[in-house]
Amino acid sequence: MPEIQEEQHLSNGMVPSLFRVENVRRDTHDTFTLELVPAGNGQKFSFLPGQFNMLYVFGVGEVPISICGDPAERHVLVHTTRAVGTVTKAMRRLKRNDVIGVRGPFGTHWPVEKAEGCDVVIVAGGIGLPPLRPALYSILAHREKFGKIVLLYGTRSPEDILYKSELERWRSRFDLEVHITVDRALDGWHGNVGVVTTLIKKATFDPDNTIAFTVGPEVMMRYTILELTKRGIEKSHLYVSMERNMKCGIGLCGHCQLGGVFVCKDGPVFRYDTIEALFSLREI
Ligand SMILES: Cc1cc2nc3c(=O)[nH]c(=O)nc-3n(C[C@H](O)[C@H](O)[C@H](O)COP(=O)(O)OP(=O)(O)OC[C@H]3O[C@@H](n4cnc5c(N)ncnc54)[C@H](O)[C@@H]3O)c2cc1C
Ligand code: FES
User: Fold this and answer.
1) Are 33 and 80 in contact (CB under 8 A)?
2) Half-sphere exposure (CA, 13 Å, Cβ side) for 115?
3) 244 lines ligand 1 (CB under 6 A)
4) For residue 256, which atom of ligand 1 is closest to its CA?
5) β-strand 77-82 against 17-26: which pairing, if any?
6) Residue 88 Cα distances to 106, 224, 234, 265, angstroms
7) What is the separation of C-alpha 19 from the centre of its chain, rounded to a whole number of angstroms?
8) What's the pLDDT band for 99 if we cut at 50, 70, 90?
9) CA pseudo-torsion sign 174, 119, 150, 2
10) Which of the four pLDDT bands, split at 50, 70 and 90, describes residue 6?
11) Residue 48 to residue 110: CA distance in whole angstroms
12) What are phi and psi of 230, to 5 degrees?
């Protein structure tokens, strides 16, 4: 289980720390993964699964991006990002040895420790898989402490599937149930077709003793919650990660406010029953 952050050498205030791009990987046509190491020597850092960093592309701007590497690996920060706009497209142009600013880690985390002794169902839609991957790493590092582990992952097309070789490795494990689906199949795809919620009926778990984590577009999370509760999981055992526009990341500016909560500080990971009333609202 990841320990509470006993090493905190990253900037968690307003001043970014400098990180060097160690490696760049193109995952799909619009998504890429950066591996970042401290520009100074020997720095270590820690984070909890589900937390995010504010990544600053110099001269362009700053965006919140989830940390998607292994929490046990304290020398490298991994971020998988979809290029959608100004900052993320500039980030996609970064090359090995370029420098980027990092503030964090921020926010709440997946309650992996609470899930000990339970079955765990992880439901990811599209770019929702990266924020969930550290939770899966942590669970697999202590596999014996958990019951059944199920990963359900849906993307628009086979070309949008992230971490393909890792998914293949996970699929071949006897102690992990992995189901993948795509909205639209292409030639050569022999897997499931349909939205990710259609996989929930295939998953094997004990609803009375299951904790579920989900990330994806809000409409996908709403239907996921509906299906999981239909299968009998209590709302208090469901956790979601929310996205809102962010500026400060530390509860000062109000950009991420959602009703009475700040997504950057009180989230992004919420127990579903605590935000159910706010769940479908945009910023208010
Ligand atoms: C806590 C948190 C964690 C996040 N983790 C990740 C992550 O791990 N990987 C990742 O790729 N993104 C993640 N995001 C989303 C990411 O922060 C945004 O995509 C980014 O801020 C967009 O900034 P931009 O300057 O590139 O786009 P902008 O120039 O601000 O936006 C350009 C266009 O893209 C649209 N857009 C903005 N955000 C999104 C979005 N999320 N999806 C689709 N269209 C969008 C805008 O509406 C606009 O039309 C996270 C967001 C939050 C709040
Ligand atoms: S981003 Fe400033 S309060 Fe949350």
Assistant:
1) yes
2) 33
3) yes
4) 53
5) unpaired
6) 19, 28, 37, 22
7) 21
8) very high
9) negative
10) very low
11) 8
12) -60, -35
Structure confidence by residue, pLDDT tens digits, 114-171: 999 999 999 999 999 999 999 999 999 999 999 999 999 999 999 999 999 999 999 9
Proximal ligand: closest to the CA of 267: 1
Whether a cis peptide bond, with omega within 30° of 0, leads into 268 is yes
**Can you tell me the mean pLDDT for 62-66?**
97
Residue type for position 170: W
Its sign, for the CA torsion 107, 152, 276, 208, is negative
Instruction: Write the single-letter amino acid at 159.
Output: E
User: Does the CA dihedral 257-263-266-271 come out positive or negative?
Assistant: positive
Per the CB < 8 A criterion, the answer to whether 211 and 235 are in contact is: no
Q: Which amino acid is at 56?
A: Y
Instruction: Identify which of 258, 262, 284 to mutate to test ligand 2's pocket (most ligand atoms within 8 A of the CB).
Output: 262
**Among residues 229, 235, 227, which one has the least CA distance to residue 270?**
235
Q: For residue 244, give the 3-state DSSP assignment.
A: coil
Tens-place pLDDT, residues 84-97? 999 999 999 999 99
